[in-house]
């Protein structure tokens, strides 16, 4: 078996290859002057694992070219961050269901797909053979032994934070919107008094950072001692990281599904477990 490191996931691919006891295939990625992409993969085995997050349009095109270069091989696609998963239904008539199109494309080449914390259960249903690894226990383990409170920025991430806090052995809560009157909405922790506490905001994806910044403002008003944030996928579009630090967040922690300077937790072991199952 060989592991192919995609252009977006070279560090994670190396970690996975080491744990599998496999070699990395020799790969070449180029961009032509007109913007077209080029892929070459050498020394291919019959069984191949591609590791490639989809964090940009180029990442997706590179993935398709890798599939084509591996013609004749048995391919497992490890896509740690599954881009396009947020459009998992039609919100307006005539819209494409992006993840359905991506799922059909990927599974026309790959026999099995492994991803990490795909955006929703409905997104996952568009795949025929997918393993969705949960990285929330890893985030919890990272904070184990620290006196922190884990906070979900909204009810939507409540179950994720509950899992992480269980592994961390700490308290958890979520920020709730309470309507005061027709024009006023107050956002506050549902149950806990956070004054003087060290807080970690936990979410699956941080993209622009807007949700985390707003949550930080609320928590600062509650008198917390400090705020960190932790996520699975550190997309961090544009100047999102600066935006988070400027809002008073002391530290940003993420996994290596999207390889960024804040990616201090590796999902390699969890992915290898999924590959062997």
Count the domains: 2
What portion of residues belong to β-strands? 25-35%
Tertiary shape: elongated
Low confidence ranges: none
The topology string of helices and strands comes to EHEEEEHEHEHEHEHEEEHEHEEH
Notes on the structure:
The two termini are 16 Å apart. This protein has nine helices and 15 strands. It folds into two domains: 2-134 and 267-276, Rossmann fold, CATH 3.40.50.2020; 136-256, 3-Layer(aba) Sandwich (Rossmann fold), CATH 3.40.50.2020. The chain has 277 residues and is of the alpha/beta class. Strand 10 and strand 11 (185-189) form a beta hairpin. The protein has helices spanning 10-20, 57-69, 98-107, 121-124, 136-142, 158-168, 210-221, 240-246, 268-276, and strands spanning 2-5, 23-24, 26-31, 37-42, 47-51, 74-79, 112-116, 130-133, 148-152, 171-179, 185-189, 198-206, 226-234, 251-255, 263-265. The strands form three sheets. Strands 11-10-9-12-13-14-15 form a seven-stranded mixed β-sheet. The protein has a six-stranded parallel β-sheet with strand order 2-1-5-6-7-8, with helices on both faces. A two-stranded antiparallel sheet has the order 3-4. The model has no long low-confidence stretch (mean pLDDT 93). Helix 1 packs across helix 9 (268-276) and helix 5 crosses helix 6. Helix content is 30%, strand content 30%.
Relevant terms:
277 residues; Rossmann fold; 9 helices; 30% strand
Brief rundown of the structure:
This protein is of the alpha/beta class. 30% of the residues lie in helices and 30% in strands.
